[in-house]
Amino acid sequence: MIGIVSDTHDNLEAVREFAPELNEFGVDVLLHAGDYIAPFTLPELARVECEEFIGVFGNNDGERDFLREKAEELGFEIVGEVFTGEVLGLKVAMVHGVHEEVVEAFAASGEYDLVVYGHTHEPDVRKVGDTLVVNPGEACGYVTGERSVAVLDPDKLEVEIIKF
Ligand code: NI
């Protein structure tokens, strides 16, 4: 299973709440679409018992060197602004999503099975051609008041938004 999280925005309590929820699904890989904010959020994300953590930076992630350093200590990978690669057999593109046009261009390209983004703080699950587009919503709950993450079954390409 693939866990999908975005916009944790330093909300440690939220991370402590969603981690066990994701662990119930047995998450193999955790994707984070950015806006961790401070490096101290990262060890909390290690509560998700996954084999691999792949993240991108968000527009509010100012301390990038420290975030990278902390990520490396934890065996996490924060790749930069854009991730493209294979995850559990799926071709995946992930950006924070500051520019909607970039998200839509990845989706419309037909090159990916899954396009992940965040930033809007609103959950979004839809198909563009054969490409599944997922925004898990905001883990922090600061903007909409609704905290959510997502879990994706890579075999069925089915997504569940988990509100917590
Ligand atoms: Ni953002």
List strands and helices in order, with pairings.
Elements: E1 2-5, H1 12-25, E2 29-32, H2 41-45, E3 52-55, H3 64-74, E4 77-78, E5 82-87, E6 90-95, H4 100-108, E7 114-116, E8 123-128, E9 131-136, E10 148-153, E11 158-163
Parallel strand pairs: 1-2, 2-3, 3-4, 6-7, 7-9
Antiparallel strand pairs: 1-10, 5-6, 8-9, 10-11
The chain binds nickel (II) ion.
The site of nickel (II) ion has 6 residues, from loops.
How would you describe this protein?
The chain has 164 residues and is an alpha/beta fold. It has a single domain (2-163), classed as Metallo-dependent phosphatases (Purple Acid Phosphatase, chain A, domain 2), CATH 3.60.21.10. It has four helices and eleven strands. It has helices spanning 12-25, 41-45, 64-74, 100-108; strands at 2-5, 29-32, 52-55, 77-78, 82-87, 90-95, 114-116, 123-128, 131-136, 148-153, 158-163. The chain has a six-stranded mixed beta sheet, covered by helices on one side. β8 and β9 form a beta hairpin. The longest helix is centred in the first third of the chain and has 14 residues, at 12-25. The site of nickel (II) ion has 6 residues, from loops.
Biggest sheet: strand arrangement: 4-3-2-1-10-11
- Decide which structural class fits the backbone: alpha/beta
Which range best describes the helical content: under 10%, 10-25%, 25-40%, 40-55%, 55-70% or over 70%? 10-25%
Bound molecules: nickel (II) ion
Described by strand count, sense and barrel closure, the largest sheet is:
6 strands, mixed
Shape: globular
Proportion of residues in β-strands: 25-35%
How many alpha or pi helices? 4
- The tally of strands reads 11
Q: Give the CATH topology.
A: Purple Acid Phosphatase, chain A, domain 2
Q: State the distance separating the first and last CA atoms.
A: 19 Å
Order of helices and strands: EHEHEHEEEHEEEEE
Rounded mean pLDDT is 97
**Mind telling me the CATH superfamily name?**
Metallo-dependent phosphatases
CATH secondary-structure class: Alpha Beta
Radius of gyration based on Cα positions: 14 Å
The overall number of domains is 1
The CATH architecture assignment turns out to be 4-Layer Sandwich
